[in-house]
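Hi there,

I know you've been waiting on this one. I reran it after we fixed the sequence typo, so this is the corrected version. Both the input and the resulting structure follow.
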Amino acid sequence: MTPLAEQIAMRIRATGPMPLSEYMRICLLDGRHGYYATRDPFGRAGDFTTAPEIHQIFGELCGLALAQAWMDQGSPAPFTLAEPGPGRGTLMADMLRAIRLAPGMSEAAQVALIEASAHLRKVQAQRIPSSAHLDNVEDFPDIPLFLMANEFIDALPIRQYQMGGDGWHERLVGLSDDGTLAMGLGPVVPLGRKGRPGDIVEECPEGVAAIRSIAARIAAHGGAAIIVDYGGWNGYGDSFQALRDHAPEDPLANPGLADLTAHVDFAPLAAAALDAGAQVSRPIHQGDWLRLLGIEARANALTRAGDAGAAAALHRLTDPQEMGHLFKAIAIWPKGAPAVPGFTPLE
């Protein structure tokens, strides 16, 4: 067992099985043995590669989309340019370079990063020295907010529920007879969803709360948010997974040594944004959105300029068999304002 597995097992023996959300939080953020507290997980040398790490073209187009939204809303100054879960700071660095094309935008931007990992905060501070770190999305100042979130929601803790013969039960992390970590079921809970025996549903309360807070600020003060992640709409099934050295593994096998994520259900996120008084878009495949923004023309121009990786990046980011359909995007903007580029309103 890993040191963190032993720590979790001791806690379970003392207080009983824990919700999956608490298990994820410990595995990812424990100050001594947590995954994000002890390593840089990104890129070929890490455990996974995100879109901004594939090529600069992704961050450039995200930045230009926010720049157009900023100009469409009258170029407000000052404003917050934010990213939750910014990793190495690659996406924000690429966006900052791209928004220089919008006159006055760089000067008006106050960069804010939401990061729970002390280790990654140090990496980000070196990459983007002009940025400020905040603890959560509720800490944004009361000025227009332009936000980009890529693979942020999928890393937030989830709760799982499984339908039994007598109703929904929360899935809990407990101990098997041999002392290893194992999934089990808790008492019946009033979930309020339909299902058949064996069905599993997932909820991400922290993700819904974050989107509601972001949308409320945008509705009140202006701005826009673009949320890109992998997942679907009103989904069922067990999507809880672990990734280590670019390969999947049992998410209970090595606590603290593997990244833990789950598919994002965009339906409750969109509902939260609407409830907060903002406009939200229909979900769109990442590949389709990037094509609407002109990724093919940009990749061709970079290729002609000698960028040998642009064509491969275009394929990986947009092809339906790669990231193109696995990842979805939604956008949030104030009611009555022009839509964020590439998005159409959800009716």
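Quick highlight: The chain is about 35% helix and 25% strand.

Best,
R. S.
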